[in-house]
Design brief:
Elements (H helix, E strand, L loop, with lengths): L4 E7 L4 E4 L2 E5 L25 E9 L2 E10 L2 H12 L5 H12 L11 E6 L17 H15 L4 E6 L6 H8 L3 E5 L11 E6 L3 H18 L3 E7 L6 H6 L4 E5 L6 H9 L1 H22 L9
Parallel strand pairs: 3-5, 6-7, 6-8, 8-11, 9-10
Antiparallel strand pairs: 1-2, 1-4, 2-3, 4-5, 9-11
Length: about 300
């Protein structure tokens, strides 16, 4: 929190925030990153375009780096907050201090901890894709990754889920009652294809938003080709899980395990990959808290 800047304005679909003084580009990359800020503009959900928001990050010129949405305001709340700030009744610095107190635990709140079901794709006896040279399987890689994420994440409850059978998995997850579901997989094709993608159920607006968040973090860390978010029907590969979980669900395909370069990139910084997943899960959980189940609430 220390040193972060706060601004209030109206969200635009292009990743800009319109304020009284002009437009500010919101980008997820840090200020010192080599890539252009426009290449990683903060994704704005369709339903939030035109709404007022409180955003924080590192301000430089007309760009807010490492930008995250702190709060989406209802129309009435947005007008009121802006009026209070303009009249000097409350300042952005005061808002910042109150958020710092909230995040540090100095302000007591009701239990808002969200539960993420972290599903390990495949199982020991049916391990999914395998790298021919190392004999590393999709299941073994993701089981180790899930253990690290579960230990490393602090703001969100995480429960690992193992597959018994393909057909029983949605019911097993539903019995757990998670707020959202992230399933860990790896891609494979012809040992040459490379890149990162995240799958979601084609009728789930909340799943789509989750996929956008997770994809941003994975692409930023791995620096592999961005293959985008992919909508899936129940008949598509992976679609059965996406369709029949009661909570919004995404399937992560961060790299191609049969591609030596992709696998090497994933393995060279497992701590960084763990941190990317943890940050994405925390952001998804935080958006459900901020919205109280409305604007960003992750209903199916």
């Amino acid at each position: 929190m220390q040193g972060k800047d706060f601004i209030i304005g109206t969200l635009k679909s292009s990743g800009y925030l319109r304020t009284d003084s002009g437009e500010t580009l919101l980008t997820i990359i840090p200020m010192q990153a080599a890539q252009s800020p426009e290449s990683a503009a903060l994704k704005i959900a369709t339903e939030d375009v035109g709404k007022m928001a409180l955003v924080r990050g590192d301000f430089s010129g007309d760009v807010l780096y490492s930008a995250t949405i702190v709060e989406i305001f209802s129309p009435a709340t947005g007008i009121l907050a802006t009026a209070l700030i303009n009249k000097g009744i409350v300042s952005l610095e005061e808002i910042k201090n109150r958020i710092s107190e909230f995040e540090s635990g100095k302000i007591e709140t009701q239990d808002q901890s969200k539960l993420c079901a972290l599903v390990i794709g495949h199982k020991k006896k049916s391990p999914g894709a395998i790298n021919a040279n190392s004999n590393l399987s999709e299941f073994d890689f993701n089981e180790d990754l899930a253990l690290h994420v579960e230990k490393g994440i602090e703001k969100t409850q995480v429960q690992r889920v193992y597959r018994r059978t393909h057909e029983e998995l949605p019911d097993d997850i539903n019995a757990l009652g998670p707020d959202f579901v992230v399933s860990l997989h790896c891609n494979a094709f012809n040992k040459k294809v490379s890149g990162t993608e995240v799958l979601y159920y084609h009728r789930s607006g909340k799943g789509k938003r989750m996929a956008e968040i997770l994809l941003n973090y994975l692409v930023e860390h791995l620096k592999l080709p961005n293959r985008g978010i992919k909508p899936k029907t129940s008949e598509d590969r992976g679609g059965y899980l996406l369709r029949y979980t009661k909570s919004p669900c995404v399937i992560a395909e961060p790299f191609f395990i049969d591609n030596e370069g992709d696998l090497a990139r994933a393995q060279e910084d497992m701590d960084g990959l763990t941190a990317a997943y943890a940050a994405a899960i925390d952001q998804i959980a935080q958006e459900t808290i901020q919205s109280s189940g409305t604007t960003y609430g992750l209903g199916k």
